Amino acid sequence: xxxxxxxxxxKNIDDVVGQQHLVGPGKIIRRMxxxxxxxxxxxxxxxxxxxxxxASAIAGSTKxxxxxxxxxxxxxxxxxxVVEEAKFSGxxxxxxxEIHRLTKPKQxxxxxxxxxxxxxxxxxxxxxxxxxxxxxxxxxxxxxxxxPLNEDxxxxxxxxxxxxxxxxxxxxxxxxxxxxxxxLAIATHGDLRSTLNALELAAKSxxxxxxxxxxxxxxxIEECMQRKALVQDKDGDAHYNVISALQKxxxxxxxxxxxxxxxxxxxxxxxxxxxxRLITIAYEDIGLANLPAATRTVLAIQAAEKIGxxxxxxxxxxxxxxLCLSPKSNSGISAIDxxxxxxxxxxYGDIPDYLKDAHYSGAKELGHGIDYKYPHDYPHDWVKQQxxxxxxxxxxxxxxxxxxxxxxxxxxxxxxxxxxxNS
Length: 423
What we know:
Blueprint: H1 4-7, H2 20-23, H3 28-35, E1 41-44, H4 51-62, E2 65-70, H5 76-89, E3 92-97, H6 104-115, E4 119-125, H7 129-132, H8 135-138, E5 142-145, H9 151-163, E6 174-176, H10 178-186, H11 192-205, E7 214-216, H12 218-225, H13 238-251, H14 255-267, H15 271-286, H16 291-307, H17 313-325, H18 331-344, H19 405-422
Parallel strand pairs: 1-4, 1-5, 2-3, 3-4, 6-7
Helix pairs in contact: 5-6, 9-10, 9-11, 10-12, 11-12, 13-14, 13-15, 14-17, 15-16, 15-17, 16-17
């Protein structure tokens, strides 16, 4: 029997879980489907987030033939067979997994068939396509990022799976405890495939109780996922509370508290949450007071991801200790949030004409680029010149702090330039 995750793949665009920025009402892929104007695309994002599901949903909604290949393992001959089918039937949607590993002979064969529309290519990759995919393919496709599913998305998919009697587990007398459902929803960090695989294993390996029901508890889900849950609080928010406590302990420079909350996350083997949060902390809370700490945090996260647990605890602990004891500054996040606040409130003015693009014919007639002073033509590569719109010319977003030598030096330079500009 095919796995539950395979059986529950969406049959049309309305069945897609999550990714509403692509398939929601009025969004780009839904527009393509509804207008029957499909174009080749590349979907990139983490495993289990719906790349294959979107491709099968597009095919199901349009009634085109749907074929799936792997760029790394399938031969050029198989690709030739798909193209021959497309020529005979009119159009074939081809999902090409691991498209970043497409060889040049296969690519050269495929390109003309993308041009004439016989093949609508949907490439899937976990790699950044702007770096990993050949420009010839990239220029003939639209690139869409697929995001990890959130907790509500995962719960929606679980409920659909346990009630679907045709493809899901609806024929089983399943009951799932609240804490077990919460663990299913958060433990795979948005990987729906892994969640459904664990759910199916739990459902089919758990005997019925005396009342004839299959009751899935937290302990059963932990065993089937091989991931421990954090100790749950009464509201089921322990996961988020621990992450919040970790950041606030680092922000408050309490090493022992931060290590305690880090240990909770390590015990749950929640490396993705640890990684995201520590990088955020490094830039949000330490920031310009000790910018090299942010670089070292990124390197430590990369090391932790390469070596995995249990050894990953070592670079993570070192990083948490350094971030706790580092001087702190939130001037960067405060500055950009203040600037965004003005933009979102409509508080912006016209860009001065001399700052506008002048690299096209007719720019001079519009007065663009005229009287611009090129700083490198002046002593010390600086010249007094207004850069903000007139409406905001006296605005100050960045307010330097003096909690570390690096930002202290930046602050002195900032005030020196401000004074020169206003003199």
